[in-house]
């Protein structure tokens, strides 16, 4: 979502990014890292196109490590464990300083469109409506919903209708997409269990060190 907003605004387009919480822009709800197998290649591609993920993680990582070094170079993949609070804070600074970009804390509840019949298209986007009822007209809408659409948190047999980290879920946008004729599917992600450090016998563990010197993600990082 951050990269899409930045790309549009840097092209000179008047852009607004809606977020459920402005304090949690670019927040990492699960395993806080950037990269890893296959995803690391994607971050490098985003960086080559002028994106911010690589630069931002280079400023805020706790540990950087090149994975799969025992195999061929085609599958080498960089992974950086992040300070999730610092990563979110630094990315928010970038968005707030970007020209042509406005941050709005609100839940988008409906995609607005009109019937349209040209070149085979049947519907044309006209904007979005937020939960308060306010309408924002737009020529294009990019959806980057993450894990918020009608999200549920499962802890054993317990189900909580909540977004990640106790944040509000986005409950209404799904119905709007279905009404527009878009097929939805439910996906599942897993979050590692949190453990109290006082209950762990560290003498039976071996520390997994990062690379030294660390390999930067971004080609623009000194």
Major sheet: order of its strands?
Answer: 2-4-3
- Low-confidence segments, given as residue ranges, are none
Structural class: alpha+beta
The secondary-structure element order is HEEHHEEHEEEEEEH
Largest sheet: 3 strands, antiparallel
Total count of strands: 10
How much strand content do the residues show?
25-35%
- Compute the number of helices: 5
* Average pLDDT metric: 90
Query: How many whole angstroms does the radius of gyration measure?
Result: 20 Å
General form: globular
| Secondary structure: helix percent | 10-25%
Terminal CA distance reads: 26 Å
Write the layout of secondary structure elements.
Elements: H1 2-10, E1 15-19, E2 33-35, H2 39-48, H3 53-60, E3 61-67, E4 77-82, H4 84-97, E5 101-105, E6 108-118, E7 121-130, E8 135-137, E9 153-155, E10 158-160, H5 173-179
Parallel strand pairs: 1-5
Antiparallel strand pairs: 2-4, 3-4, 6-7, 7-8, 9-10
Helix pairs in contact: 3-4
